[in-house]
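Hey L., structure's done. Input below.
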Amino acid sequence: MWCEERLGVGKAGELELPFPVLDDAIDDHAPIFGLRAALAAARHELCLVLPVDVPLVTEEALRTLVRERAVPQTGPLPGVYLRSQLRAVEARIERGELTLRGLTRRTVTLDERLLANVNTPADLEALEHAAKERK
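Output:
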């Protein structure tokens, strides 16, 4: 294991997951609320944030993000954030700015197929179909 600490953050009880989930304590759905909760609870400065809806992301891709302390070219998640960015995250929320874009300015280019976003069973089926087509 190369992560010293793992936190699951989201809406407590919303999904059945094989690990405890720290509730982000807000009814709205936006990644910034989960990031705020994660940074506030983290014991370490460097935090790799991985959403549950990117099932194809690889360990190699995550190691690249950590090594570069970056986010991928496609957007803010998955990505590396610092616990010291908590104040900046809270300031964005106070202003009503709920995007994570621009919070981490360093980017790395990853294979976009690894970052496929899966939110529904139909999304997963389409992803599996596309993978079979490529073979």
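The mean pLDDT is 90. The two ends are 31 Å apart (CA to CA).

-- N.
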